[in-house]
Amino acid sequence: MPDTIFSHREQSGTTMIEVLVTMVVLAMGLLGVAALQTQMQLSEMESYQRSQALILLNDMTGRIAANRYDATAYVTTSPLGAGMTCSTSSSTRQQSDTAEWCDALQGVAEVSGVNRVGAMVGARGCVESISAGATWSPSHGRACRLSPPPLPALVADKIFITERPVHPA
Fold first, then answer.
1. What is the dihedral of CA 61, 59, 144, 131, to 10 degrees?
2. How do residues 85-140 score in pLDDT, each as one tens digit?
3. Sequence-distant contacts of 24-33: CB under 8 A, at least 24 apart
4. CA torsion sign, 130 to 134 to 140 to 141?
5. Please, where are the H alpha helices in 106-151?
6. Under a CB-based contact definition with an 8 Å cutoff, are residues 146 and 158 in contact?
């Protein structure tokens, strides 16, 4: 009987250390899962923003294609969208399309209270004209300059119109 008591005294505290090590390992695992969840939410938001940018880019491309004989009129001299005043003129198809695209960039499709939340955060876009065969470079002398928007905003992108003859079908 004394051997059993002595043996028990030597091992006292071993179980406590095992429990503490297990808790530390478990805590590190849970912190990893929390960090992964946070990163997944950020990636999901970025993915949503990029898909919205592509939808809006496709929208304006379709508008220009539908009015292709007046495509050069769509060229903008300043960015449209967030932080800009959208035109209210709708006397021509181009003016109406540009005003609607500017509103779409500002998120007019969905409203929460008084805030427009239907598009990307800080969305802005330009339509620029490039001559056929020209190459683009940062010093090309573009009229519509998109300065980097405040983070985490994304720029919808630019639409370039090539100046080539359009033959009626």
1. 0
2. 888 888 899 889 988 888 888 888 777 888 777 777 778 888 877 765 444 444 34
3. none
4. negative
5. none
6. yes
